[in-house]
Specification:
405 residues; alpha+beta; conserved putative lor/sdh protein from methanococcus maripaludis s2 fold; Elongation Factor Tu (Ef-tu), domain 3; 4 domains; 22 strands
């Protein structure tokens, strides 16, 4: 039995040696089994991150279109009455009655209000009495003049007969001349008194407040019994007139024309006026006058457009849009309004070349209708411009251009 035991021990020791030899291999296999999936996942993540890092930003671009300068120019305008006046009293008095109110249409010479003018009436009566006195004084002066002439004639006859002295004759002639002068003075007094009466009659007639022109009453600031002052207002502390009247046929519309189109706006040029409250309606008018000079602050030309308004549909003070045909001496380049970048460095557009590189180009703006804008300098047409450039756009950056509106 002792001879059989050694092989058994040898075989067991041999297997143990093999197990010990295979254990490192097994550990290596286990390590790779856990590390390899993580390595593959990390590689995929790095590849995805690199791809995302290398992907260029996508931007919408539009083609800049070159166009001639002729087009219809639409500008905002403000409607103003053709005539407007503040009507004040020319005589001091109390309002007896008023005959018109706001919104009423009146014609030239219509009575707007009647005034009681007791002080003026009393002054007129006094002036007329003084005029009668002047007439009586003239009659007296004429009578005295007649007597003086007769006396002077008799003295001439007596002097020829040597019945009176030369001195008596000279005195009679001098008295006659004095009364001639008195008559002339009395006639002048009458003329002055008549002028005073006419003035007071005119002032009393101002007790009827009249419309200066055809129009519509837009303001009334009096009532029965209100005291009004000559040339002033219902009360000394108020600057409001008795009435305000406006003539709105035609209406005047004032527009500010940019310098680019100023030379194209001429007198009698047709114009079309529209207001938002009357959609689909266009009122035809014409340019009646221009300022002939540019405002140095805004570089615009002040122009006036008259539009007929017999129906009264248009109201003074309305905001309007005026369209006129204009032209400029050079071509313009039209781009979307949103493509223009305005910042501290100036006005630019971002163009994208064939390789995807961005170039910031300085431009000068022209007409902007809210959708498209005309550029008078900077572009020649055909460039690809970014439609909606962000605030992070820089010169030289690379992008992926995508055609868009």
């Amino acid at each position: 039995m002792n001879a059989v035991s050694p092989p058994f021990h040898f075989a067991g020791g041999h297997r143990r040696r093999w197990l010990f030899a295979l254990m490192p291999v097994a550990l290596v296999l286990l390590f790779f089994a856990g590390w390899w999936p993580r390595h593959v996942a990390r590689g995929r993540l790095v590849a995805a991150s690199s791809a995302a890092h290398e992907r260029l930003p996508r931007v919408k671009v539009a083609t800049a279109i070159a166009a001639d300068g002729g087009r219809s120019l639409t500008l905002p305008g403000s409607m103003v009455a053709n005539q407007q006046a503040a009507v004040n009293a020319r005589a001091t008095g109390y309002v007896r009655r008023w005959l018109v109110d706001i919104g009423d249409r009146v014609h030239t010479g219509d009575v707007l209000a009647e005034l009681e003018t007791p002080e003026l009436d009393q002054q007129l009566a006094q002036a007329r009495a003084a005029l009668e006195q002047k007439h009586a004084a003239l009659e007296q002066a004429n009578a005295n003049l007649g007597y003086a002439r007769a006396t002077a004639a008799r003295q001439d006859t007596l002097l020829a007969a040597a019945l009176v002295s030369q001195q008596d004759d000279d005195q009679a002639r001098a008295q006659r001349d004095i009364w001639v002068a008195n008559v002339h003075a009395a006639e002048s007094d009458i003329a002055a008194a008549q002028a005073n009466v006419r003035q007071l009659v005119q002032l009393v007639s101002f007790g009827h407040v009249l419309a200066p022109f055809d129009g519509r009453i837009t303001e009334r600031n009096i009532d029965v019994g209100s005291l009004v002052n000559a040339g002033g207002s219902p009360s000394a502390s108020s600057a409001r007139p008795m009435f305000r009247i406006e003539s709105t046929d035609p209406l005047r519309v004032f527009i500010q024309v940019p310098q680019t189109f100023a030379l194209s706006v001429k007198q009698d040029e047709p114009a079309s006026v529209s207001v938002r409250q009357l959609p689909g309606r266009a009122f035809e008018g014409k340019v009646t006058r221009t300022a002939g000079t540019l405002d140095p602050a805004s570089r615009t030309l002040n122009a006036e457009v008259d539009v007929p308004n017999s129906s009264g549909e248009l109201l003074a003070g309305m905001y309007a849009h005026v369209s006129i045909a204009v032209a400029v001496a050079h071509r313009v380049v039209r781009v979307p309004s949103s493509a223009v970048i305005i910042d501290a460095s100036g006005v630019h557009v971002a163009t994208v070349d064939g390789s995807g590189q961005v170039h910031l180009v300085a431009v000068q703006r022209g007409l902007d209708n809210g959708r498209d804008i005309d550029l008078v300098e900077g572009l020649v047409g055909g460039e690809q411009v970014m439609v909606n450039p962000g605030g992070d756009v820089t010169d030289g950056m690379r992008v992926e251009a995508v055609a868009g509106p």
